[in-house]
Amino acid sequence: MNKTTISEVHKYVEQEVKLGAWLANKRSSGKIAFLQLRDGTGFIQGVVAKSDVGEEIFQLAKSITQESSLYVTGKVQKDERSPLGYELLVTGLEVIHQAVDYPITPKEHGTEFLMDHRHLWLRSKRQHAVMKIRNEIIRATFEYFNNEGFTKVDPPILTGSSPEGGSELFHTKYFEEDAFLSQSGQLHLEAAAMALGKVFSFGPTFRAEKSKTRRHLIEFWMIEPEMAFYDHEDSLKVQEEYVSYIVQSVLKNCQIELKTLGRDTTKLEKIQAPFPRITYDDALKFLHEKGFTDVQWGDDFGAPHETAIAENYDKPVFITHYPTALKAFYMQPDPGRPEVVLCADLIAPEGYGEIIGGSERINDFDLLQQRLEEHNLPLEAYKWYLELRQYGSVPHSGFGLGLERTVAWISGVEHVRETIPFPRLLNRLYP
Ligand code: 4AD
């Protein structure tokens, strides 16, 4: 007997296999029971025909409760109607553990109830699909940056100096000293880029943001590439190629999951570099023409503004050259126009908002020191960062892609809470 998994049954057509599985759902009509089985690798329908298995196994099949664990044996058959393309003609069943009153039933549940039961909700077909897509994006990310000659670097999680400003920092004690949980690995990645050329990180990021929106998490995961000798323009090229690569990888490797989620894949097929670009100034002009009177030069764009801009395109759009005063201290001012910086936010289509923030970094020691002072940042904590501009400073650029917002967009899932296994939200630290 071949012991296998649902994802591998295609290798055993017309053969008998054994699976370890859970019962996701079940229905029966007369002398046939249909078991929706899941094993983590996928979902398959098991067909139990009384005439094939006899009275005892048939009654057992009918008595198994939702989310009980079992060993199932059966013959693999082609089935064009199922998303997997196969079903299992069950020949034997063995219950490992009978589940009692599983709380998440096939009927509708409210969001709070599902979030309270996130440890179980993760088992559902939809959540399974989102997690598989998340995994594919991570896999394709490592593949892309490895192919392009980047070195993976792991910046610290406990830090003394912060890149994105003070108000959103999580404070903690570091023995006698004050420390923060990382809100971006960028500063350390800049140091690593001076040692290794092209680097990237993938790690958790913490922001004590009091925002309760469908795009904000308190703890999220960021992919941060940093590249020596790359200017702003070079960095935009990496961004559009990388984002196209992960979208095309999901299309190639997650067909079943995209189908489960009902994602319109024709929209994803269009995501190919190059991406359109618009300056902050032109974006503002467009918003004024559209009747947005609530935003003036120097203001940041909110979600409604980003959505209105993104609606003009069927690919992600770069908004470039934001006002210097709006952005972080480290961004390189435009040499011809220092009131704006060489930066870009990448806005996803279909209202999913900003997925990337990036910029060219200041490489001049005096200017960087001046900007730190203007931002009232303690020079002592940034001494090491300033030193990068004292020993062979070079033009360099980098960016950060928010994984959860990217998963939401590619999966077509409305809220980021469904894109991370255990979301940390404003009022949620459990499960
Ligand atoms: O634009 P941000 O703040 O950029 C940085 O942190 C830079 N230091 C990155 C770099 O250049 N190395 O954040 C980058 C991305 C955003 O575009 C967004 O996708 C995501 O991180 N992000 C969040 N995702 C979920 N919840 C939040 N609270 C987020 N804040 C930012």
TL;DR?
With 431 residues, this protein is of the alpha+beta class.
Total domain modules: 2
Distance between the termini: 39 Å
Bound molecules: 4-amino-1,4-dioxobutan-2-aminium adenosine-5'-monophosphate
**CATH level-4 homologous superfamily of the largest domain:** Bira Bifunctional Protein, Domain 2
What shape does the CA trace take? elongated
What characterizes the major β-sheet?
Answer: 8 strands, mixed
**The level-1 CATH class of the largest domain:** Alpha Beta
User: How does CATH name the architecture of the largest domain?
Assistant: 2-Layer Sandwich
Please list the strands of the largest sheet in the order they lie side by side: 7-11-12-19-18-17-14-13
Annotation, overall tally of beta strands: 19
Class inferred from helices and paired strands: alpha+beta
What is the helical fraction, as a range of percent?
A: 25-40%
Tell me the fraction of residues in β-strands, as a range.
25-35%
Radius of gyration: 26 Å
Report on the architecture of this protein.
- This protein is an alpha+beta fold and 431 residues long.
- It has two domains: 2-97, OB fold (Dihydrolipoamide Acetyltransferase, E2P) (Beta Barrel); 118-418, Bira Bifunctional Protein, Domain 2 (BirA Bifunctional Protein, domain 2).
- Helices cover 31% and strands 28% of the residues.
- It is built from 13 helices and 19 strands.
- The strands form four sheets. It has an eight-stranded mixed beta sheet with strand order 7-11-12-19-18-17-14-13. Strands 2-3-4-6-5 form a five-stranded mixed barrel. A three-stranded antiparallel beta sheet has the order 8-10-9, with no helix packed on it.
- α4 packs across α6 and α4 packs across α13.
- The longest helix is centred in the first third of the chain and has 23 residues, at 125-147.
- The model has no long low-confidence stretch (mean pLDDT 96).
- It binds 4-amino-1,4-dioxobutan-2-aminium adenosine-5'-monophosphate.
- 4-amino-1,4-dioxobutan-2-aminium adenosine-5'-monophosphate (4AD) binds at residues 163-164, 184, 186, 207, 209, 216-217, 220, 222, 224, 354-358, 398-400, 402, 404-405, 416.
